[in-house]
Amino acid sequence: MKNKKTEIAIIILFLILQTLLYIYVGTQKAYLHIDEVYSYGLANYDKIDIQENSDFFNTWHTKEYYADYLAVQDKDVGNYTPVYENQKNDVHPPLYYLLLRFAMGIAKGHISKWIGITVNIFIYAAITIVMYFILQKILENKKHYKIKALLLAFLSSILLASLSNVVYIRMYALSTLLIVITSYLHMKLWEKQEISKKLLFAIGITVLAGILTHYYYIFYIAMLFILFVYKYIKEKNKKALLYYVTTILLAGMVSLFLFPYSIEHIFFGYRGKGVMQNLKDISQIPISFALQIYTLNYYAFNGSLLILLLIALGIYLYSKIKKITIPKETSKTKEMLTILWLPSLFFFIMATIASPWRVLRYIVPVCGILSILVLYEIYRLLQAVTTEKISNILMTVLCIFLILAPVFFHLEPELLYRDKKEIVQKVSGELNLPTIYLYNTQKGGFLDDILLFSQINESYIAKDISVTENTIKSIVKNKDISKGILLFINQEKEEENEIISNQVKQYLNFNNIEHVKRLSNCDVYYLH
After folding, report:
1. Which strands sit side by side in the sheet containing 513-518, from one edge to the other?
2. Which of 182, 207, 393, 403 is deepest in the core (most CB within 10 A)?
3. Is pLDDT at 51 greater than 70 in this prediction?
4. Residue 514: beta bridge partners?
5. Which is nearest to 363 in space by CA: 135, 172, 94?
């Protein structure tokens, strides 16, 4: 890039392109995952779960009752107490919820996926910029390194892992940003010959924010901490060692001062105990890794990890056959790569072992870093066996293939819930009828579908009732059911739902019953 203005203009262009893609993917998202529901509720409501209300069950409610859980109301503007109190009683630190609560306050009274997605779009703009800075440090000895760095940064932000992270309304996008900032600041620190108090302060603030966003961040900073302590001990740089260790420890201490409940969450909470149990259950570790590597392949490499590894192996074998020496990295580049590889792999390993489920969200903060590292290694091998021009052309073709791979392999971002679009439209339109949920509390799962109830004018959650004619008729007494009702049922066995729905149809003298949709935990019927 010839000058700073051109560089900024190209960066802005790429940010606009990725934002347009994020918006398009966001339009495809038709429903909320239960944890996304919790994101809104925990950032807003005065309880973790709306079902804790004494008047929740066995009472008719309007849609506003449920909307109160999912959206900031006029009466709650400026009240941030739930952000702290709910996280104290739940299993996560509060920083992301504070950010989401601020955004919800701006859009008060509105239930919308776009509140959370918009927050993540801004976060990912910052992620792309920081990744650009990181890649410049890795590629700075290459020709036209700035444009290459920007292209790879942009690519990392439009892989399926990133698209999924943007439209998933949880703290993982913020955690990703703090991990890449942490990496970049540590790269700058590694280069410093003298102590930079400003840089250490920035690292301290980032570490503090990382711990207060998600506890898995500790895995990442722990490996960086070990790496830097080793560096300073090896160099016998006692002053740098003291300053660095003090910075990290102070960040940890301040996080505990601000949110002392972290200790209980990590060591004594149900999620913390689950992590400890997973770490002890060695027999499950191979299965966990197999599943999570599959997840990594699907989302971080758009289903093409094996292809990329085969390409790298093929180039390497070709170099051996042709007796081509692959140049070693400069010591600086090798150090910059180590700062990325070691913490990212350690994070991936620990998150895989510790997580309750083998899903994208737990490893997504390092997916972008791992994807660009693999691509960089292929680029380095190509440059050893061919010319600069040909290696650039081949890498361009490879990157285009990665972008188009989801089309070839029929892959898509996680948790879009396209199949639920129709039922959302129906319950807010033609099927906006008095609704009864025959709710089995042992099966649970109400919050999975609270979005529907925030659209339905009148609804009744019947808790563990015996389905008799008198019970059903007493529920709908004084209600206009001339156009029919919607019936949600979540018994342990799906076949029981059909039996009960037919009983209700008979009790209320309806002629027809239509199965509208099978949801995650229940069946929905239209009786008329």
Report:
1. 60-62, 458-463, 435-439, 485-489, 523-527, 513-518
2. 207
3. yes
4. 526
5. 172
